[in-house]
Amino acid sequence: MTVVSRGRFVSAYVPKTIDTSHIDLSADLQELVERLAENSHDHWAQKRLDEGWRYGSKRNDVEKEHPDLLPYGELSEPEKEYDRTTVVEALKAIMALGYEVKRR
Question: Are 49 and 69 in contact (CB under 8 A)?
Answer without folding.
Answer: yes
